[in-house]
Each structure stands twice: as C-alpha cells, then as structure tokens.
Amino acid sequence: MTAASDTRPVAGDAETAIRTRRSTIRLTGPAPGPDELLDLLAAAATAPDHGQLRPWRVIAICGDARVRLGEAAAEAAPTADLAERIAAKHLRAPLMLGLVFQPRDHPTIPRWEQLAATSAMATTLLLLLDVRGWGGVWFGGPYPDAPQVRKHLGLGGDEQLLGYLYVGTPVPGEASRLRATADVRAKLSWLGGATA
Ligand SMILES: Cc1cc2nc3c(=O)[nH]c(=O)nc-3n(C[C@H](O)[C@H](O)[C@H](O)COP(=O)(O)O)c2cc1C
C-alpha cells in the first residue's frame, strides 16, 4: 500500500508555486477549454469549505458573450465616454469567469464562512491556472451589482457577483515580476509565548 505521503508533491513545489504566482493583466488567447476548466474547478473545489457547501457557481463568458455582457454593464455607466471604456474592459481577456457567491441558509455555518470558502476556491483556482501556464487576474468588476449586469447573468436574488477571474495566455514578452517577500512581522502576534 502506498502511504499518502508518497503520493504528495514535495513541499517545495507547492511553496514555489505560491511564492512565484503573479496576476497577469495582459492576456491573449487561447484560454482553457470546457474540459480543462471543469478539471481546474474540481481541483479548486478542494479548498477549505466548511460542510462542503460549495456556496458558489461560475459563469464562463467567452467570444461574443463578452461583448453582450459589456453592453449590459455599459448601460450602468453614467457617461457615454465611461460606457465605452466599461464595455472595452470586457474584452481584456479571452475568457471571463463570473464568480457567483450563493450563500446558503445553514444552521451552523454562517455566511462569512461561506464567503471565505468561496474566496479560498477562487484563490486556489488562480494558483492552479498559474502553475499550468495560464494567466489570470481577479477584478471586482465592472459593476458587479448593477441591475443590468445581474439580469444579464441571470443572478438570483440571494446571489452576489464577486467579480470576474479574467483568464487567458500571458502576453509574451512581459518582464518577470517576482515579488519581494512581504514584511509580515506586524501581522503576527502570539499568546502564550512563541513555540521554538
Ligand atoms: C476580490 C478581489 C477583487 C479585486 N479587484 C481588483 C480590481 O478591481 N482592480 C485591480 O486593479 N485589482 C483588483 N484586485 C487585485 C488583483 O487581483 C491582483 O491581486 C493585484 O493586481 C496584485 O497582483 P498579484 O496577485 O500579482 O500580487 C482584486 C483582488 C481581489 C482578491
């Protein structure tokens, strides 16, 4: 019998993936197709999720559907100039993944835990895209709460659009953007004395 530890990646691989992931803003085609997207979502759905409620769904938007969604969002813009720019934002990547939060009424699992689980899934999905060589970035909009956008996407009354993961192939030639290690010393406190 194979021990679980034999089938797991060495810790360094995962850590390198996490430390080197960057959001990619300049994206071109291709993007993952339906089968790969399902596979990626199944993997991302392993993120911590109290009760495995999976309180989310994903709307994949590609091709001309981006244009139509852009037109719906543009209707919410206060000026014609902004409307044009809002519409154009929907064409920045070949694939948009609308991330829809679906909070459930649950006796012991509060809404905030469900939102945290949804965020964990999305973050895991971004990491998986990155390690497979796809580019992706999470943007909160445009206009996730606009009635025109909600109607166009068919959102239910209790559903909330948490923006989009914009996905595609990184535009070649972008300089590597390795990040400096964050100074998180002020973010950590101990009660009871630090362990060795
Ligand atoms: C929920 C969420 C919404 C975001 N919305 C925006 C946004 O609307 N505009 C923006 O410039 N960055 C936004 N960001 C930040 C980018 O996704 C990204 O993290 C940032 O550009 C830093 O890049 P990095 O992931 O390589 O560190 C958002 C991040 C999250 C988690």
From TrEMBL:
Its EC number is 1.-.-.-. Keywords: Flavoprotein, FMN, NAD, NADP, Oxidoreductase. Binds 1 FMN per subunit. It comes from Streptomyces kaniharaensis. FMN binds at residues 21-23, 50, 138-140. The keyword Flavoprotein applies. GO terms for molecular function: oxidoreductase activity. This is Putative NAD(P)H nitroreductase. InterPro entries: NAD(P)H_nitroreductase (IPR052530), Nitroreductase (IPR029479), Nitroreductase-like (IPR000415), YdjA-like (IPR026021). Residues 18-168 form the Nitroreductase domain. It is an enzyme of class 1 (oxidoreductase). The keyword Iron does not apply. The lineage of its organism: Bacteria, Bacillati, Actinomycetota, Actinomycetes, Kitasatosporales. Its cofactor is FMN. Pfam families: Nitroreductase. Belongs to the nitroreductase family.
